[in-house]
Design a protein that fits this description.
Pfam families: Pkinase (PF00069)
CATH class of the largest domain: Mainly Alpha
Radius of gyration: 18 Å
Helix content: 10-25%
CATH superfamily of the largest domain: Transferase(Phosphotransferase) domain 1
Distance between the termini: 37 Å
Number of helices: 5
Keywords: ATP-binding, Kinase, Nucleotide-binding, Serine/threonine-protein kinase, Transferase
Mean pLDDT: 93
Number of domains: 2
CATH architecture of the largest domain: Orthogonal Bundle
CATH topology of the largest domain: Transferase(Phosphotransferase), domain 1
Protein name: Tau-tubulin kinase homolog Asator-like
Strand content: 15-25%
Organism: Diaphorina citri (Asian citrus psyllid)
Family: Belongs to the protein kinase superfamily. CK1 Ser/Thr protein kinase family.
Amino acid sequence: MSSEDLLQQGHIVKERWKVIRKIGGGGFGEIYEGHDLVTKENVALKVESARQPKQVLKMEVAVLKKLQGKEHVCRFIGCGRNDRFNYVVMQLQGKNLAELRRAQPRGAFSLSTTLRLGIQILKAIESIHSVGFLHRDIKPSNFSIGRLQHTSRRVYMLDFGLARQYTTSSGEVRAPRAAAGFRGTVRYASINAHKNKEMGRHDDLWSLFYMLVEFVNIQHPLVK
């Protein structure tokens, strides 16, 4: 942790969640491992600065709540805000798939492991589509393996900050915008995303395809 981090070791959020260590961060926020003083379990705290121009945790919380009860989604524990930061607390998971792939001897998964992971990721994508949202940032680091013995072979979908609702209140598919702007991660984004076109459910699936290609260490179709 550095002095610039939003939270420091030992900080207690809302008199309940005690910060243990920082475990990740990026352009949109920071992620910490914490300890729940009520349930005595370790949790994940995701925070963003209240002064940050682009706020994404509101979308994260909305989608996470809609997905509760789905097999490949973290359990929502709580959320809130103060004058310094917004936060969401959820079930803590293990290493993400990008870390796990890089740790393999050849930097790749076996074909059988890739197929098992792919089936679970596909089910996770189906779950978010079933509640009317696109993920729009499907990539290995946004999926992790459960950290407990009974969840150690289960894949969990993470990070819904770039999600977008693709259906109307009546369940109809929303009309596409003329120019949508780029969303996602360059390496895994679909052709539509790179062309700043409106994305649909199939674009999440293209990103899954690029992931699976990389998992078995085949040359990425869009990288020379």
